[in-house]
Amino acid sequence: MSGTQELLVEPDRLAAELHRADPPTLLDVRWRLVGPPGRDDYAVAHLPGAVFVDLDTALCGAPGAAGRHPLPDPAALQATLRAAGVRAGHPVVVYDGGDGMAAARAWWTLRWAGHREVRLLHGGWPAWTAAGLPSSTEVPTPPPGDVRVRPGALPVLDANDAARLAAADAGTLLDVRAAPRYRGETEPIDPVAGHLPGAVNLPAPEYVTEGRFLSAEALRERFAAAGVTDGAPVGAYCGSGVTAAQAVLALHLAGRSDAALYVGSWSNWVADPSRPVATGETPRR
Fold it and tell me: E strands along 45-201, which residues?
């Protein structure tokens, strides 16, 4: 597995960077699948200078047959990022409420859009506050950015791509949902339970805990144990492409910058009743 650029930043280092004359752009993307919106958390307190960006409405397209969190419209995404002050070639740091999922999807979206200079605050908002670092309630108005969205800078899978990868002898499609959902024992969100035939289950807590990732060496070992091998394609999916974006980030940390995201994930797969569904513990190959 090849090396990769810096993807994470620890709170103390970010705090020092924020004192520079031209600090990184901060995006607060706190989000919950259910419950109060992240904007409420942002209003209570946030990192000084951070701009709130909503995952559901700004970083993703409208839910539908393409999935619950499909790709955003490039023009709309560009307008959102420019309004948040994102500048071409200027570093961005994203953070969320601590589990790292929304921040990872924001990281992935910016990278997919062609903006390479983006890192994730390791541990998110809880790590920042635990370090005793300052917060703010001021809502900044950053100068408009000039970032240009160029879609396709990271690989994506559609349903056909995902099916081929899951069925391939050389290649691995990771299903990073909880094991009971993978086995088809329960499905709290989508209308059909089960998994893509041939997909391998690797629940997210096996490589990230409370928003903090295992070391690169440990990640390589964990992915290898799940069947990920050098030189063979690898992709990931979850319910709607948020948790799976975190898996793609973990794969990048492990040196697999070619890892692909099935953006529509399970919510897109089951939108077509003709697609096959597998249940049980063992992948079908």
Answer: 51-52, 92-95, 118-121, 156-157, 172-175, 200-201
Which is nearest to 249 in space by CA: 102, 129, 147, 142? Answer: 102
Q: What is the largest CA-CA distance in the chain?
A: 56
User: What's the chain's length in residues?
Assistant: 285
- Domain interval for residue 214: 156-269
CATH number of the domain bearing residue 245? 3.40.250.10
Domain contains 274: no
**Claim to verify: residue 165 and residue 213 sit in the same structural domain:** yes
pLDDT in tens, 73-125: 999 999 999 999 999 999 999 999 999 999 999 999 999 999 999 999 999 99
Active site residue 238: yes
The last residue of one of the domains, among 95, 130, 165, is 130
Say if 151 falls within a structural domain.
no
Q: Let me know if residue 180 belongs to a domain.
A: yes
What is the spatial order of strands in the sheet that 260-262 belongs to?
156-157, 260-262, 234-237, 172-175, 200-201
pLDDT at residue 283 is higher than 80: no
If one counts the domains in the chain, the total is 2
Exposure pattern of 196-235 as b/e (b: 16+ CB <10 Å)? bbbbbbbbbeebbeebebbebeebbebbeebebeeeebbb
State pLDDT tens for residues 159-204: 999 999 999 989 999 999 999 999 999 999 999 999 999 999 999 9
Cα separation, 78 vs 73, whole angstroms? 9
Is the whole-model pTM more than 0.85? yes
Q: Are residues 61 and 163 in the same domain?
A: no
Question: Residue 67 CB: number of other CB atoms within 10 A?
Answer: 26
